[in-house]
Amino acid sequence: MVEKIETVLKHGKGFISFVVAGDPNFDKSADYIVALAEAGADVVEIGIAFSDPSADGETIMKADLRAAAAGSTTTKVFELVEKVRQRTQVPLVFLTYTNTVFTYGYEAFLAKMKQYEVQGIIMPDLPLEEQAEFVALAEKYQRSFIQLVTLKSGKRIPDIVKHASGFVYVVSSLGITGTRQNLSADAYDLITQINQLTDVPTAVGFGVSHPDQVSQFSNAQAVIVGSAIVKIIAAHPFDAEQYLQTFVKGMKAVW
Amino acid sequence: MVEKIETVLKHGKGFISFVVAGDPNFDKSADYIVALAEAGADVVEIGIAFSDPSADGETIMKADLRAAAAGSTTTKVFELVEKVRQRTQVPLVFLTYTNTVFTYGYEAFLAKMKQYEVQGIIMPDLPLEEQAEFVALAEKYQRSFIQLVTLKSGKRIPDIVKHASGFVYVVSSLGITGTRQNLSADAYDLITQINQLTDVPTAVGFGVSHPDQVSQFSNAQAVIVGSAIVKIIAAHPFDAEQYLQTFVKGMKAVW
Amino acid sequence: GYYGEYGGQFIPELLMPAVSAVADAFNHYKDDAAFKDELKDLFDNYANRPSLLYHAKNMSKDLGGAQIYFKREDLNHTGAHKINNVLGQALIAQRMGKTRLIAETGAGQHGVATATAAALFGMEAEIFMGKEDTDRQALNVYRMELLGAKVHVVDTGTMVLKDAVNATFQEWTKRIDDTFYVLGSAVGPYPFPEMVKYFQSIISEEAREQFLSQTGKLPDAVIAAVGGGSNAIGAFSKFISDRDVALIGVEAAGKGIHTTQTAATITNGSQGIFHGMKSKFLQSPDGQIDPVYSISAGLDYPGIGPEHAYLSDIKRAQYVPITDDEAVQAFEYIARTEGIIAAIESSHAVAYAMKIAPNMKPDQQIMVNLSGRGDKDVAAIARYKGVEINE
Amino acid sequence: GYYGEYGGQFIPELLMPAVSAVADAFNHYKDDAAFKDELKDLFDNYANRPSLLYHAKNMSKDLGGAQIYFKREDLNHTGAHKINNVLGQALIAQRMGKTRLIAETGAGQHGVATATAAALFGMEAEIFMGKEDTDRQALNVYRMELLGAKVHVVDTGTMVLKDAVNATFQEWTKRIDDTFYVLGSAVGPYPFPEMVKYFQSIISEEAREQFLSQTGKLPDAVIAAVGGGSNAIGAFSKFISDRDVALIGVEAAGKGIHTTQTAATITNGSQGIFHGMKSKFLQSPDGQIDPVYSISAGLDYPGIGPEHAYLSDIKRAQYVPITDDEAVQAFEYIARTEGIIAAIESSHAVAYAMKIAPNMKPDQQIMVNLSGRGDKDVAAIARYKGVEINE
């Protein structure tokens, strides 16, 4: 039985890792998701490759291209999840552009998520203004629609977190995904503000890559690491397991 | 003593030949003018090379380029004439664009013509409307300003021939200088018309190249052959004498 | 922000405040008298408006049917309708206190227009252009640089227009405070499709008056080429409520709608969510956006503005495909017949007019929106015809 | 046919009847109401006249002196002042019953304009262009062909503009009855300089009214580039009797007036008779016409229209040289400052305005005739600046 995301993360010091489904191929993707879970990842985000990943930086764009070359389709991503579920009970979250879900059909997609026990979904191009239909369906299928809050969200934050489920994805810097050396201290204050508004755990992401960064977000329930993990896979496409485990353990040790 | 052009041509069956001064060089030019005179040319036209011979066809344009390459200047052309005059008493006529004469100075140019006994001058771009100043000076220096009449001149003909001197240059076809196979029968009628208006001899030119053409112009006092002679020089730049003489004698035999 | 079920604001949360601020500014200024006066001054005294409504008498006579009129957007400063939108958005940006314009561009026309406006307004400009396009249109890159703009080469994805749009949105998320994204077509999240329509509507506003004053009646049909659809929505807009005026958008069929070398979105596309909007797109069953093709760089886009998708659904406008071959023939035809070298984009619209005019009566009238001039296309047409041009 | 001692008809007898017939037709139609109405219709509804008088505020402010205005001939259909003259001459040709237009062209602008008019009037067009120019401007050759014209490559002489003029006159002598020579500049035998002035005078006719209505007074100076001098004579014409308006023609100094790489005819030239007119020319002491040079193909001509020679002699107009370097700087300057890519010809005039404006007062006004758009020049400017452009 897979635990709810909220339950896993409420203890704090959570670690959420990200991979692109099919990078470098679908068999290795499954192995890496399992390896991350075994190394201590509390939640694994599974990215679905898109032709035009406009919210992503170069690292994840390239992973999308590798996944596309491996023949990624929505159906293959569900097959991957089905296999992963036979090997680990780690909570899973999809990260996908809206068009992938829309063309599949919102409800059909959520039904598959339920079937394969994918707990949540992040759609970076489905903001508050456009999400009502999907959120209602997600509730129907008991899937978490993950809300994003950014340093620019300002007075929009109360409305956004009102609909929060799973965790609140706190975007810690301006810009797109990718590793950065300097993260804004403003993010700390943003997390505090969100914690005051909701009981849903906060997870901070976008640019987290070094162990010494995570301590800056002691007020968050989790950190999200994407590009740094994708880079490890890019560097060691067919034997990344030990590097991933070393990285996750190193992050968790200081966290 | 050089005879007047009118005197030479009044016997009929006159032959006027043309060379470009300095084609292929100034020494050979002198030889060729003398050779033409000795072969029976009644008048020799000496062309002065111009950078933009817009009234001339390709054959004469190329001769102008050869003359330019030989260093043609107005001064060198006068030097040529001075040398030619020591070897032949054939009447000479310049054919030159107006700018050459204008930049030298109309009066200075005519004075040189008189000095070296050049009897006349043809300036294809100095029509009736623009020639008054020059014609008055030409009369002062007793040089013939050769008038041109074309198949298009129509009602302009009486005014043009009123100022005729030396000969009337009858342009036998439309277009520029160059050899043509078919000459218009209209030219015959044009010559008749001019003969009725003036006692100045008529000479027909532009496109005359074959012996069998000259008989078409039995009503003219002379024929003018330009391009055909220039082509002989182009084909035999350094030993054209005998070819020129053969050509001239052939033309005169049927004429 | 919706046209029927199309439109919306499908963009990252990070951009929502910026886009909302643009929407607020647009909704304020579009009815602001001082703003409208300044815009009119820019239109009249810089863009060279009003543009002519030209009666193509030779063509009308030759085709033997309807009277054909060209709305001559090609006579605008910079040579296309693009300047209308760019001046409007730059003026909004100035009112919002922005000092830097960013824009995507395909072949370079919108980039040149944006760089032009930035020069006029004394703003910075940075233009994003796919590497395929900077290679093909090096001269337009230099033209933008002459106008003082910085050109960024986009080497991600398929390295063409859609990737340039992606990159410009990304750039905007990185630097929002002083920066305004001047979107070039009637696409993207609200308010862009509405704002672009507002600025391009000057085309039909003028044309409607010109038809009434020059001919005493409205046209029977208005024909415009559709890529994203900005010139078409501008040409249609003020005629939409004139139900007797047929509105016809002409899509680029490329090598044919039964091939993959096409950009005919309404004809071959399906509903999707991309570039901030719900509309129709050429895409795989999985929602992966297709690479598309047309001889016309300006029509070579996998989507279409949301209002066009709506006008098609409700059958207020009709969308038809025209192939490369047909467009090139029309390009050559009006050059020879009217002495007008029109953009290959606009030539798609001309090609469709050539199809329908002969079946109409001489007292009927067609307006073709000549959205731009074709000097930019002459080299490509020569290549298409197999003529060697050594430049 | 004379302006002081300049002008005349120095052409072969064979052409005199044809040229006289043109003179008769011109003198008849220039005062014919129906002709003038039709010309006005062509100007307004085809050439896109009146052209804007544009206040270059950014430039005026930046230079800190006189107010600078651009007369925007670049906004005409086909992108330059050339169309004014071509439409006028084609209309005369039509009235004379001619069915075939011939014309010389240098870089191709006048050839394109003539081909355009021929397409509009349903006439044949044959354009003569030097081989050097057809090689350098292959795209313009194709453009003329698209417009239905036949292009003849002139491989005689120096194979540039002056040789093309020679060849066109030659062609005319061969086929006079159905053919009209549309001369492109204010040069050649009478009536061409006068006729070209007549048709180009629309520039100053409009500008004079525009200055009075927009600013309440006339300009203090009118500046125009001079090659043959058609745009300049058009810009000067209606101001000649306004003695307080300084008239300034800007010649192409090329690499400098102390080099042989120049085309500054008034500055360096002398009296001569060429191309049917008495005027000033760059020539040897012997009267051999010089090869000339300018970065601007439109100013790269060894003579100047006879009226300019006269206006210079009587000091009613002043003629000044501007080098390639100065013109390129001005080209770049107004692109960045006003968002206008002007022809390199016109940029010579802009360059001189940049020299004198700072020394004038803010209540003084300069008109610069922007005779054409500069899209055609972008590649050459890039080369000049050493920028690699792969087309």
Automatic annotation (TrEMBL), chains A, B:
The active site is at residues 45, 56. Keywords: Amino-acid biosynthesis, Aromatic amino acid biosynthesis, Lyase, Tryptophan biosynthesis. It is an enzyme of class 4 (lyase). Gene3D superfamilies: Aldolase class I. It comes from the Bacteria. The alpha subunit is responsible for the aldol cleavage of indoleglycerol phosphate to indole and glyceraldehyde 3-phosphate. Belongs to the TrpA family. This is Tryptophan synthase alpha chain.
